[in-house]
Design a protein that fits this description.
The chain is an alpha+beta fold. 30% of the residues lie in helices and 25% in strands. The chain has two domains: 59-94; 96-364, no CATH class. The protein has a seven-stranded antiparallel beta sheet, covered by helices on one side. Strands 4-19-5-17-18 form a five-stranded antiparallel beta sheet, with helices on one face. The chain is globular and about 75 Å long.
Length: 371
């Protein structure tokens, strides 16, 4: 009798121990079902949001998507996936840039004293002229606006700005950092565009014209975009649509082919809509009337950090720092900046390689000891 009581007592204890385990299994199953349901819900919600932006009544997002996609070299499909060719054509016809129809007046650029001042007309002028301790050649200013970040490099003497090209131009490109290391560059930014058939490219085949030390080192008659962007032997920024031969006759020292020209003789290009260039990483080169050269890099396509800038955003920055002549350079994943031979900014791709390979770069070399 005692053995029966002990056995029943043991069974009750065992059942008490096992019961919570079975309950836990049921709870886990319910939890898994809830997780799956929530995941489906959020995916549906995301789809609704995307469809609203893509096809909804707010045209801003639609036009931004189209212009950003159509600006890229190899991602036009991002626009054609959602929209008809007719709609894309209509959007691009409303978003475009009309450049200033006049020649750069080189006489307006008077290279003079750029030393620190006793007083400044604005905080931006103070940022320009106040040197970093021990550095009289250049200064880097951090740019942080709503939606994008970047860097503005101030080069005090324009004679220190020159074009760098890969040693095997036409065969393989180099990163901006490597071209700086190979040519003694203290700071560098990417320059003109290049063939990018696989969406990445190796910078081997530049588009358009490249002039180095007064000689045409590369000329491709198809694929170029914009005009010649460069510097004369007088170290003045020269923007022109004339031929390479004619530009050299007029004193062009170094140049690449790209665009559009954003400022000419202090006048801002007419930007309709977002200019047809969308929002993306940017690289821009400019010069002030006092000869100071500006390298502007805007980081982009990095959600949560920096989305990128429109052409209007870029012009706002340039005019703030009194740029007089300015031109857009190759952007997107090519937008890279190197300092002391190392990648300095956060490109949208290729950071693990020290920046993507490109076909040329504008660099800062210390020529202060030269007459």
């Amino acid at each position: 009798m005692k053995d029966v009581k002990k056995r029943k007592k043991a069974e009750k204890i065992e059942n008490k121990i096992e019961q919570p385990a079975s309950v836990k299994v049921k709870k886990k199953r319910k939890f898994k079902i809830k997780k799956f349901t929530m995941a489906v819900f959020f995916l549906d919600l995301l789809a609704i949001v995307v469809l609203f932006f893509v096809y909804g009544p707010v045209s801003y997002f639609r036009e931004l998507w189209i212009t950003t996609a159509m600006t890229t070299m190899n991602h036009h499909y991002l626009a054609y996936t959602f929209y008809s060719p007719k709609l894309i054509e209509e959007v691009m016809s409303r978003n475009y840039i009309v450049e200033i129809d006049e020649n750069v007046n080189l006489d307006d650029i008077v290279i003079g004293d750029t030393s620190e001042k006793s007083s400044y007309s604005s905080i931006y002028e103070e940022q320009i002229f106040t040197r970093d301790e021990g550095n009289e050649i250049y200064k880097i200013i951090r740019i942080e606006e709503n939606g994008y970040k970047g860097y503005l490099t101030v080069i005090y003497d324009p004679k220190n700005v020159e074009l760098a090209i890969p040693k095997q131009l036409g065969v393989v490109g180099n990163s901006v950092a490597k071209m700086c290391r190979d040519n003694g560059g203290l700071v560098g930014i990417n320059g003109g565009g290049f063939e990018d058939l696989d969406g990445w490219g190796n910078g081997s085949t530049p588009y358009g014209v490249i002039i180095k030390d007064g000689k045409i080192v590369w000329q491709r008659h198809n694929g170029g975009i914009g005009g010649l962007i460069g510097f004369t032997y007088d170290n003045k920024m020269y923007l022109t649509y004339e031929t390479a031969e004619s530009a050299i006759e007029h004193g062009m020292r170094d140049a690449v082919e790209f665009g559009p020209f954003l400022l000419v003789n202090g006048k801002v290009a007419e930007i309709n809509g977002d200019g047809g260039w969308g929002i993306a990483p940017r690289t821009v080169i400019a010069q002030r009337k006092d000869g100071i050269v500006l390298f502007l890099i805007i980081e982009g396509r990095l959600p949560g950090y920096s989305v990128g800038a429109s052409m209007k955003d870029v012009v706002k920055i340039l005019t703030r720092y009194k740029a007089y002549n300015a031109a857009n350079l190759d952007g997107g994943a090519s937008s890279t900046m190197a300092v002391n031979g190392k990648l300095y900014n956060r490109p949208s791709a290729g950071a693990e390689y020290g920046g993507r390979a490109v076909s040329n770069a504008w660099i800062v070399v210390d020529h202060s000891g030269q007459e």
